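Risk register update: the risk of archive-format incompatibility is retired. Evidence:
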Amino acid sequence: MTLVQMQPRSTSATPVHRTVADAMDAAGPQVCDDMTVEVALSVMAGAHTGHLLVRDDDGVCTGLVTRAQLTAARDSSAYPDRVQLRDILGERGSFTSPVTTMAEAEDAMRRSRLDALPVVDEHGRALGVLALAR
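Archived output:
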């Protein structure tokens, strides 16, 4: 698991020192990493969301998949019907901590070209999602 950056939580939530916890959205739908791409796309459509948090059998967040990622995988000429989300994610994705400052998280997301980033606790469980405004 790769944490973007961890900083002690500031006692004041001024705009300069806002943390990820101040800006994150609720975790939203979480699905198991053995779910197939087709089922995940159906869950996304039903939940009216553009991403899903993916967790392993122990409930640890393994990453985030987007509609664009899943559609690209499905539309690939080498796409078999039984591709699971763990196959798309590969290694564990990027994560951030709720105590990371917003400035640090935004900078890391822009450098990595991420639109959304899972926010996890010290045990790797998803607390929410930080999404950049476009």
